[in-house]
Amino acid sequence: MNSQPAQADFVLKNAKVITVDQTFSIQQAIAVKDGRILSVGSNDDVKKFVSPTTKIFDLNGKSVLPGINDSHMHGPLFGATRPPLSLDLTFPNVQSISDMVDALKEKVAEVKPGEWIRGFGWDQSTLAECKDDPLRLPRKKDIDAVSPDNPVVFTDFSAHTMLVNSKALEIANLTQETPDPESGEIEKDPKTGELTGIFKELGAQSLVAKYVPLLTRAEKKQAVLTAMEHLSANGVTSFTDAAIGPGGEAYVYGVMSAEFCQIYQELLSEGKLTTRVNILLLMGNYGALTLDDIKKSLKAFEFPKTSDANWLKYPGIKIFADGIPLTYSAWMNEDYVSGDVGHGRSVIPGDTDKEQSDNLVAMIKYIHSKGYQIGIHATGDRAIDTAVDGMVQAMEENPVEDLRHYIVHADFLSPKKAAVLAKHNFGVSMQPFIHAMICDFEPTVVGAERAAREFPFKTVLKAGIPLTNSSDAPVTYPNWRMGIQAAVLRESLVSGSVSGPEECISVQEAIQTYTINGAWQDHMEDIKGSIEKGKLADLCIIDKDILTISPHEIGSIAVLMTIVDGKVVFDKSNGAFEKNNS
Cβ(405)–Cβ(374) under 8 Å? Predict the structure, then answer.
């Protein structure tokens, strides 16, 4: 006797299903049961799974993608930088220092004297007063007059530069006699020595940040919920939270603290996670990491347990090797072209490049020996070269298979090192929209030739590396459509000019970087990242055909519905898809 086919919970039909399977096939319908995909094929193929209780969604030709995987972002930090917990200073809300001052003035009028005011997202490359002068930044003299009684801390879009006012400096007991920390820079006026209010890199920022009130437990939980709300509205069904743990307790009012491990598990237990979360742990203070720090942290901090690894997992550890080019803190092989700043330094302690390299490699080898995946923030080519060399040495000395270490950002990755990464099954996580934001500005920092090679998407794919693309939210908003547009066109957000056209990739390749490749990074390509029978029913429904419209229109595509584990977590369709199944 033939067994009856399973009865689907719901069916999507009359769709353009972009499966992202091995042949990148296009199908018409999907049947889903108990959070898994029963069948993918034609409308007729899924009919046998329809019962009187099956919900039918007639998509009338709309496109369906696998759920989007944002392979590198900061969930709690992103949520904490959105209202109501922080002033939104991002472009286009703030396009000048004057706009920043106006926003601060309004906030001062709302709060009590002495209350801290937080803001996030200003971008010197889009501030009108800074566009023609790479050394011009907003400084305390710009904001002091409107905030004499309220300490102010404004973090830039990259989180690598912080602006504070005189009141904040007073509370932190910082003066022109204060020496620079071991890592980072307290900017001082070259003529007077006076503090300007600018702090570069986390080591320096911590001198002020430790005085900013930490978020309460309730505020931390709200930050995660806020982040997931935005992610669901953008079709994101999985993300890597790329640095929380015992090393992040005091950074930016506690948005990287180990307490978030408990909060994520709590939300999972409550059934309130709407995105799958993959976490890299931060095991020491940024900029002060040493091998001893790693050893002590791993001994003192037990990796969290998870009740469901399909929703929440802790595969490894995050390391920072350097800063970013715009602040001259990327660790380069050749000098910067502007300013007397040399070639930058690693944030890893050491008096020389050699000492810093040796310390970074030692950390990589030790973490690898413990069987943890490593995500290494490295933007400058010297930082990337060192990180890749360290990963190779670790693998050769201790051939632990399939850990899938990867370089985060990899701005100035060379073709030679790309080939090495591919050979050893290592990955790269890049951020196309960051490139769109900064590419006009970069020639004044690293020169036109190097700037054109920044974020070499095509080089990475040609080498055979499973490139993942991401938002690095809150550095950019988690709109993957803008990320795909940026990867395909490499056009400046500001001028529209093209930077490094030879590094453009196709729409199909870009889609893979946000879906199946992200699943590979998570060691979960067998159960997510494509629309195939047996995989998790994580789906993103959009309003336009991303494969045929002009690439210039991709960024404006609307997400109509997001489905995670077979459940609708975001719906902007206004009921248009639901049909009677008779």
Answer: yes
